[in-house]
Every structure is written in structure tokens, then in C-alpha cells.
Amino acid sequence: MSLIVVGTMAFDTIETPFGKAEKIIGGSATYVAWCASNFVKPVYQVSIVGNDFPKEELEQLNARGVETEGVEIIMDKKSFFWAGKYHLDMNSRDTLVTDLNVLADFDPKIPESYQGAEFLMLGNLVPKIQQAVIEQLRVRPKLIVLDTMNFWMEDALDDLKEVLKRVDVLMVNDSEARQLSDEFSLVKAARKIMAMGPKYVIIKKGEHGALLFYKDQVFFAPALPLEDVFDPTGAGDTFAGGFIGHLAKTKDISFNNMKTAIIVGSAMASFCVEKFGTERLKEITKEDIDKRLAQFRELVNFDIELV
Ligand code: AMP
Asked: The pTM is what?
């Protein structure tokens, strides 16, 4: 089993009602890799950073089985920078700054050693680049999952629609699903999005869990009610890492196994939000993950007599 992860590796400045963290390590591919490496090795990382990105961050990922040959380092430019501020509900946020920097002319070259990977996670990134990665793979992966956001729906909708034709699973949050489909009902939105290409649609609803749609079926994974949520940044990417990590580990891409995978995704995301940035993801052990999965089983386990 092997997994290619494509996305941003970045600096983030995050403001939540509980504090502010300046220029900490973030990026969609960073969160996916930290999470997925709990389940699958190697993780083949594809990204781009500037001369300001700490070497130790890449080394820490290498130590967890994340290959970084596909992470280009541009010596005379700065890394992607994003700043966001969360509202009081912690479910919604405003983007304050998006400095593309190195991302502006990213033209990823997939290393030869990455060819033949069975799973592909296209983390949130310029849709044209997501497409370019698919085109470079000589053997189509067993499963292609794509994450995106409103920024690209506003900036590059046609390119996004093109790449959607090539993927198996789309992951978006509820407002993005509505924006992409022009439908308020998430059921109608998912149906419209499935007609654009993806066979499966996952709609994330922050602290209210996530929905998995396939044909006329739907499955729901709750989010764990937590006492303290410090920083939701990266929760979506961590969810994605848990989802595809579980599928890659089990090599089973049936709808039934995807149900388990969104529970794993929710469990992993529940760790991510407990501290700022990737801090919590760096600490957790297999025992922590197993314990949390057991909590999820309890959360939704009930008997009902059908009447
Ligand atoms: P999430 O909270 O899961 O949506 O992901 C947050 C991460 O996405 C942050 O660490 C940012 O660095 C990264 N990010 C924010 N905006 C973009 C964008 N337009 N393209 C790619 N990555 C982004």
C-alpha cells in the first residue's frame, strides 16, 4: 500500500477566540501527512516550499515514513502563507491573507519512485496543479480523493470542474457544497456534485460531523463533542488523512469500508483541534487513536426496536 499526498506546506497565522498563533507550520499536505502516516507507509509527499521552511519539519515527517523527494524547495522565494480568524462558533472563519508565494509557479514533477502508488490524496490546492498530478501518473491509482475550498470555486471554477471529472471522491464543507452546486439542500447538492464526476461526495459539517453520499445512500459520522476546541485549522485535512489512510491500510474501497473511514477521519480530526497547528497530531500514539475510536463507537451505539 502506498499513498501520494499533494497539497500545500505552509506558514499559517491563526486567530481564535482562545488566542493567536503567528507563523506556525500548516498547509493542507502537512496535516494530511501527519495524520495518514499513522496508517500507511510510505506516504509520498508532493508540495513546494521556500527557503524559510524549517528543514526539521521535513526531517520529522521523514522519520514517520513520509518521503519528501517530491517536495520542491525554492531557495529565493517564500513559502505559501495563510492567515485566518475564527468566529466565536469556531465553525466559520474569515481568510485574512493568502500569499501564494512559491505556489504561484508550482509545476510539480512526480518522482519516478512515486509511480505505481495505489492511493492519491489531492489536498486543497490550485485545481490545475491537482489535474497535472493525475496526468503524470502512468497507472491510475485505485482511488483518487480531492479536497478543495471556496477560494478555488471563486478563482478557478472551470479548472475545478475539469479535475472533478477525474476523481472518485470529493470532500468539501457544507457551505462549499452549496456554493458548488447552487443548492441549499445537501442531498440535492451531493446529487448535483456526483453528476459532475465523483462517485462519492463527503460533506464536512465541522462540529456537526460529516456526511458520505454514494448513489442514493447516505451515511453520517458524528464529530466527538469536545470540552475544549482550540484551533480547527487543518481539521478538514486531518479528516482527509484519516479517511484515505484507513482505506489505504485496509486496501478496501467499498462503500461499507468508507463508512468506517469517515469515522476514522472524524476521530483523527478531533485530535487536531485540541491544540494549535499540528502540535496535537505530533503527540498522539496508536493507543490514543484506539481509545478515541472506542469513544466514537460508544457515541453512536444504540439499540432500537423497530415498530
Ligand atoms: P483546513 O482547516 O482543513 O481547511 O485547512 C487549513 C490549511 O489549509 C491551512 O494550514 C492553510 O495553510 C491551508 N490553506 C489555506 N488556504 C489555502 C488555499 N487557498 N490553498 C491551499 N491551501 C490552503
From this structure: 0.96
